[in-house]
Structures are given as C-alpha cells and as structure tokens.
Model the fold of this input.
Amino acid sequence: MNSASATGDLSPDEFRTAAHAAVDWIADYLESSGEYPVRSRVAPGDVRAALPSVPPQHGESLDSMLRDFHGTIMPGITHWNHPAFFAYFANSASYPGILGELLTAGLNANGMLWVTSPAVTELEEVTLDWLRQLMGLGEGWFGQITDTASISTFYALAAARERAGLDIRTKGMAARPDVPRLRVYCSEHAHSSIDKAVIALGLGHENLVKIPADEQFRLLPDAFAAAIAADAAAGYIPLAVVPCVGTTSTTSIDPVVDVVRIARQYGCWVHVDAAYGGVAAIVPELQYLMDGVDGADSLVVNPHKWLFTPMDCSVFYTRDARALKQAFTLLPEYLVTSTSTEATNLMDYGIQLGRRFRALKLWMVLRAFGRDGLAERIRFHCELAREFAGMVHFEGGWELTAPVTLSLVCFRRAPEGANEEAIARLNAAIMERVNARGRVYLSHTKLASRYTLRLAIGNIRTDREHIELAWRELREAAQFVETSGERRE
Ligand SMILES: *Cc1c(COP(=O)(O)O)cnc(C)c1O
Done:
C-alpha cells in the first residue's frame, strides 16, 4: 500500500512531491530531448515482454512505477519533442500547452452539456473564434474541437450527407431504390482520412472520386468540373468535395477558389482539409492559404500539428452548424436541462457525448505566444525549409521532387543515370541508415511512383543546427550506402 489516505489514493502531500518531481523531469526532458535517439530502437514486442502480463494484486508504489517508466517505457518512445524529428508532420508540445493539459487533468471536467461545465463550452467557443480571426477568416463559422482531423472530416461528410435531404438519418441507405450514388471528390494526393470517412458513412469506397493533379500536385479544377458534370448527368448526387490546403505528401495547395465555384453549381458541400497547413495562415504573408475558404462549408485545422499544442487537438469549423446538428442531435430525457434550448450543448454536434477540456491548452498557447509569436515561429520553420531545399538543390546528385510551399521539403538522392528502381532502393537505404543512427528522423512518400524523402519542420525547438545536422547525416549515409554497394558488386 503506497498511501496512508483512506481512499487508497495518494495523499495530497505525496501527490505534491511526486508532481513537482514530474514537472522537473519534464523541463529537463524538453531541454535535453535532442540527446535521445529520435526514433525508438526497440523491436516489436520488446516493451510488452518487459512488463508483467498480469495486473498487480496490491497497490504498488509510485517509485516502482516511475522506475518502469524510465527503464522500460522511455526506450520505447519515439521522441516527437526532439528538435531533429522531421518525419511525417513534426509537432511539438510547448510549455503553455503542457500546463493547460495538466490543469485539464486536474479539473477532469466533462463538457458534454453546457451546464456540466459552462466554461468548457464557452472557452472552446471563444478560443476557436480567436483562431478563426488569427487565420483571417470571416465571421459565421461554428467551431468545435475534436481529437483528430480524421474525425473532423468524418463530421464534415456526415453533415453533407444530412444536407442532401435524403433523410438517411431516419431511413438509412440500404434497401432504398430512391437513393442514387452519393459521390465525394478529392485529389489523388488527398489524405486517407477522407477514404475512411466515406467508408464509415456507408457511401461506398468506389464513390470517392480521385481527381488528377497537376505537376505541382494540385487538384485540377477542370478535371473536377468534368467529373462532377458527368456524375450529375448520370443521376448521381455530388455530395462533397475535399480540397486540401497542404497535402500530406508535399503540402501542395489545391485551388479552393475554383473548387468552391464549381461545387456551388451543384449544391455540393466543400470541406477544406487544412489539417497541417491551415494554421500557417496566421503568418501575414501566408494569408493566401485561406483564399476561397470563406466560401466553403467546413474546414479542419490541427493545432496539435503545427501550433505547438500537445496531442490531441483538431478543430472542425463549419458555416452550416444546422446541418451538423441535424446529423447528430438527440435529446434523451436524462440529458434534458433547463438550458437545453438557450445554451450550446456540444454533444449535439458530433458522435461523442463526453468532452475533454481541450480548449484550455489551446487558449493558453494562443495567449502565451500571441499572433506575433506564432507567426514568427511558423515563418522561421518555412525559412529553414527553404534553406534546406537550397542545400539539396545546389549539391550534385540530389534533387528536389516537389515545390517547397511551407515547411516540408521533398527530395532525394538521384545519381546521374540511375533508374527509378535503383533510386528507390538507394533512398530507402539512406533513410534507414539515418533513422537507425538516431540523430535525426525522416520519412518518405511516393510522388507519381517516384520514391521521395520528406523532411518536415514543425518542432518549436528546431533550429538551423538541426537542419545542418540532417543534411550532414544524409550525405554521410548516401556515401556509406553507395560505397558499401560498390564493395558488394
Ligand atoms: C495529418 C493529416 C490528416 C490526419 O490527421 P489526424 O489528426 O491524425 O487524423 C488529415 N489530412 C491532412 C492533410 C493531414 O496532414
């Protein structure tokens, strides 16, 4: 038994001591996160095998848990807070965000209804309205926080399905000859979360129409216009289109203005997926990222990606809160309150009833940095990306594989005369060597079947030295892989 208190919980003093120590540890960790191997070195099953497979019979001491945390859990952590984490889309937990998360855990408020914690709902409303203003969007957007962009996009398509007026909410779609095919459009470079939403909503994966992109990986408006016209002529219903502002592979930016203009002719819902790139509109010279978005029906941005807010925090905005509410609202008697009609109950706008107080951490991040502080960090990341792109561009035997629009660089080693297959093998080997060395961490993608490395800058602690380190590691790895390949031959 680890506690003298009657509840079996820690005593307040035990908690105080342990929590102070944990906060000290977090501060040390974040100061020295660059000293860990970025990508965890454990093999599948290692962590599980090091942990007891049966639960403890008696309560254990905090000390023994923390020993396991440091000895067993930490080696199995890939350090997203490492300043040389450049894989996927790099993110980071800033100190104000971590404090917000800590206070949220302490309060443990559930904002399912307005009355079950008025501040949870109202701070969410205020914070998301601030974020809307920071991104330069007009008024009239309803916002709510979700866990991930995948859920935000699911909500967008659910609202679009509701607005189509087929009463699918009541009657479903099965055994209904009066429901034609419902079509959703996105570019061939769109994120798989759109596929998942289409699948989960019962629309059928084959009704997600992938529109070709131009040589800069942007959805071709003419191809979209042709696809939607052909579908309408065939009697299908164009339900929604999902242009992307900052695609996952290359951060290309689809022409939202054109997509909105075309979609409007068919009453087709426009959902803008700006999960990664959207928050960059806070930077005045990147305001163009929101061009056309005020004409869309919904938008997702992820503060947990590039806005220094800890996982998880995605923001879903819609101009048609009515459709969203119609898709999801239900009011069982046990949830009726005297303020049911006058206050916003966020449970009415999605699947989940319970609601974590996520707004607090985002509010604290926005306050701690302010518009200027956020813009300065994001601008710096874009600058670092351009510098890295310059290093690649001016080095023989390397090439850029996509335009650098934000803070992501797509590039690869491409020795003269090597064919695609050899280039793919070479770059996979280079990436594996760099990642195994553990000083930096990169990921890859394929662009029109061309194997490509990705360096994504988005961590608040990333500095010029980390970009230079990545470049050194990459060149050394290339040399190693190429010379050991020659020795084998
Ligand atoms: C990361 C990303 C997503 C998925 O985000 P989750 O929050 O992990 O669901 C969707 N779309 C784009 C463009 C992304 O970059």
